[in-house]
């Protein structure tokens, strides 16, 4: 222990004496360790930290899938849920479905996102209310007939003043009174950001086509996920046989709960980010290793002297490693501060509320990770230089204070190898970053098929018993659209079921009249319902035909449809669709009255075949309570928000508009993941480039300093400055070319991992693989130019005299 303290004291004095060396090394390491810690804190919060449930590894989700319809995460019916409970696969199985409600107090209405849950759901998660109790089985009821409610801690505090006597009190919700039976623990917002919960029941327990429930359960003890998946596939096969009408082409997919929230591509991208920042750290380590090698040459006499007076190689090696680890720890401390700033930057770059169990904070696991990579980094960049430094030739070192020619050649090759590695790693990161940034820029510039600059979008849900009749709902949405269109600063307004470039309608099979019968490969189309003037609100004209009339919007017997251009070509190639009929599933025949321009409905990058084939129907063909309004402004759409809200409140004070955004804001909101990952990879690439160029500069500067005598002799013998420039820059060019060649191969392999994550650009984009290496090579040569200019100005007399 005394020896360790002695090594630490000596290392500290040595590093403080070389303040320039220490400062540069600490900054390089701090950058590498800081970004690694920040990214690990994000990945740890999303993928590694235990979920706040009892037996979290046994909590799973069940999804229905249908490849023909492009469904990967579909819901199940209540009857399906009951069947799954009887399989024995689960210790307990519950269910949840989204539920948006309006809470009223006086003349104030507040929209709150919540869920309806089976009464056993929170019990199977092992979560109990902090006040009151969970639901009882007898309290389960169909939507609109519930009597009780559970509140989140945040909702209880924000809207009910943290009333300690809230349990047992009634609150006004969706035009009815419900009794609060409990308040959940702080920060609990299951499954992601919900604020309240209602007990789920059903009035159609035998309806297999009423798919609205997301089953969540706890696997039976000792049941592996794969075995449970096999059992569910057998259940799905039985359903396809027993219920061909409702379950044809459907299968079941089982996932751990975390995997159902954070999908596989997102997880893959996070692991790629961890690898990317590891590259940044390796480049930083290579830089510091080069600094240590250069410093070792200056300390050769000191090390030889210590060896001459009896210090063994192991003792000297330990001392040098102590210095490198101490330097790395200093970089780790500064890096931790950088990571705190970077974590805040990442949080502020995410515009939407994350799942309540995700936290990017710097906790114990992150601190342990920082310590581990700091010590590991110190050993990584310090070991090889220390081994090189301790291979001393005592006579030569003590007599001349220099290293042997053989030793210098070994060190030069090692330094050059480090620079080649830095350039290769930097190019790999730069290519990946360039592809990610290009993907975001192209996605951001892509057109959804209509002008978004003057559009305001918002959603509203009709709550209360008075909107049960279809006529009441249809009258509200058509009347509200007309009232909004009459506002002075509004050009046109309409209600629709889906906001273009944000979400899509349901996929439905369609059949042209005379096209035979429905089959397994029937054409699937995106079903969109709206009020009149929907296309006018988007600033579009129909390609042919006419729009829906107000009467058709209100009349469920109005069998009219507008088809998108691609769907029209698929159903009636080389024919005029106007006046022809089509059928939706086994329902009624609809007459085509118009052809509409095709729109982008799903978020960019999430398109599937059926969303490109669009079928527009009048509102009464759906009768849904949740709709969106598209409001085209004459000027700035953001300035319309207050007037639009006021107009909707004037129609019905109990309703609250929510998700209010201009389309420009919505576009930024829906593309934030691409922007976030593009910015992050771009930052990593820039950091790698700076570190790599610093490495090239450092090696060239050190090489020039070591070859000062040689260069002086060359100049004395007649070499011109351009010859010296060519000599130094040529050496840098050789290193850059080697690094670029290796980096291109590595980049090609790395970008395979980005397959499926890019939009509008391929993983082997030729321009990226040509321009990026050229830029890096030119930058590397530029970094070598300053040492080369310095070498070309060497005074031969001064150089020879100094030797």
Structure described in brief:
By secondary structure, the protein is of the alpha+beta class. It is globular, with a radius of gyration of 34 Å.
Task: Name some characteristics of this structure.
six-stranded mixed barrel; 803 residues; alpha+beta; 25 helices; 51% helix
Describe the structure.
- This protein has 803 residues and is α+β, with helices and mostly antiparallel strands.
- The chain has 25 helices and 22 strands.
- The longest helix has 41 residues, at 405-445.
- The two termini are 43 Å apart.
Set down the secondary structure blueprint:
Layout: H1 2-17, H2 19-48, E1 59-66, E2 71-74, H3 78-85, E3 90-105, E4 108-117, H4 121-125, E5 131-132, E6 148-151, H5 153-160, E7 170-173, E8 176-183, E9 196-199, E10 214-219, H6 225-242, H7 244-247, E11 251-256, H8 257-261, H9 264-298, H10 300-308, H11 313-348, H12 364-389, H13 394-400, H14 405-445, E12 455-461, H15 470-485, E13 490-496, E14 506-512, E15 523-530, H16 534-537, E16 544-545, H17 550-554, E17 560-564, H18 565-571, E18 581-584, E19 589-596, E20 614-618, E21 626-633, H19 641-651, E22 658-662, H20 663-670, H21 672-706, H22 708-716, H23 721-751, H24 766-792, H25 796-802
Parallel strand pairs: 4-9, 6-8, 15-20, 17-19
Antiparallel strand pairs: 1-2, 1-10, 1-11, 3-4, 3-7, 3-10, 5-8, 6-9, 7-8, 12-21, 12-22, 13-21, 14-15, 14-18, 16-19, 17-20, 18-19
Helix pairs in contact: 1-11, 2-9, 2-11, 2-12, 9-12, 9-14, 9-21, 10-13, 11-12, 14-21, 14-23, 14-24, 15-19, 21-24, 22-25, 23-24
